Amino acid sequence: MPHSGQQPGAPRRQIAKPWAAMTAVLLLSACSMFKTAPPAPAPTITRPAPAPEPVVVTARMLEARDTVSRMVATQERLYQIVAPLLINNADLCRTHAHELLGFTAKNKYSYPGEFADAAQAALGYGEQLQVSGVLPGSGAARAGLRKGDELVSVEAQPLPTGPNAETQAARILGPLVGRHSALSITVRRGSAVRAITVPVTRACAFKVDLGNADNINSYSDGQRVLITRGMVNFAQSDEAIAFVLAKDIAHNVLGHANTTRQAYTVGGMIDNLVAVRPDTSLLIGSAGIKPVPQDLDAAADYLALYLLARAGYNIEHAHAFWQRLAGQYPPTVLNGYTAIHPATSYRLGVIDKTVAEIKAKQAARKPLLP
């Protein structure tokens, strides 16, 4: 019998069962409650980087470091000695006077082979060019540029690094020096980077190098001056070394290498001796270098004494030095200085007269012009 209020023949309503819905909720909750937790991530183990293999310093490496250190120290001494000769005599150097920045720069690749590693270990040179020498009295010295400064840029133009950086930087700096009275050079000094304004300096533009050989000699090819390690050791004092450098500067100013047609031969000797390990077999005999005629040699002595006096050196000792050199290393020592400059007696006579001439001008306060 149908319930009250239900039409006969109508379908029966489905009566919701709350317990069924609750059961479903509980089952879902149970599934949620008893779900397996994901595994914890494995702890990250940081292993220290392996220690670098210790560098085994061999006896040959130590020798290379010592060689480079001594070369650099002697070259720096030469810069100190030659600076006043170059800077104080720009007017006497004629067409050889140019605007210079007054510093040199090198990196480890300035030295070949094993000596690159030696330069890095002994001098701290790396990929970046570093100031290796500052010419006293130059614009670089006055501006405060220091040995060891790393060159970053010039006039906002980055400077090269790595192999050939020295040559590439010279190509960048050369035209700039010719167009500016001062250059803005950015350097790194320690952790600080700073811009330094370096005035250019007019000076005799001769490159002065140390020759890595023990023969007692010096050479000039019209553009460069080279003094051997042997000559430095023989001369000993800065004053005596200045006598030798001034003489070769004078030969260059007067164009004697071209006059005697020996620029190529002497240039080849210089190229050889600037190497860290030169070919010493080329020092057997005179190596094809002919003696300088006495009139040219005496002319160089005359100009050299003026260069020396204007640079502040005492020229009164010049006679004794050249006499001592000729006495200990006569022309029979074929790879020695006197073999190339044999007219010692004639030269000494010119030296004495020139010293007297210069002293008279100094006493009268006259310009020291030859």
From TrEMBL:
Please state the span of the N-terminal signal peptide per the UniProt entry.
none
Cofactor annotation remark? Binds 1 zinc ion per subunit.
Q: What are the recorded GO MF terms, alphabetically?
A: metal ion binding; metalloendopeptidase activity
Q: Which residues form the PDZ domain?
A: 89-159
Q: Which UniProt keywords apply?
A: Hydrolase, Metal-binding, Metalloprotease, Protease, Zinc
Q: Which Pfam families match?
A: Peptidase_M48
Cofactor dependency: Zn(2+)
Indicate the family of this protein: Belongs to the peptidase M48 family.
Coiled-coil segments on the chain, per record: none
Spell out the protein name for this chain. Answer: Peptidase M48
Judging by the UniProt lineage, the source's domain of life is: Bacteria
Q: Which GO terms describe its cellular component?
A: membrane
A biological process term (GO) from this entry: proteolysis involved in protein catabolic process
Keyword field contains rRNA-binding: no
The protein's matches in InterPro entries, at most eight in alphabetical order, are given as:
Mito/Outer_Membr_Metalloprot, PDZ, PDZ_sf, Peptidase_M48
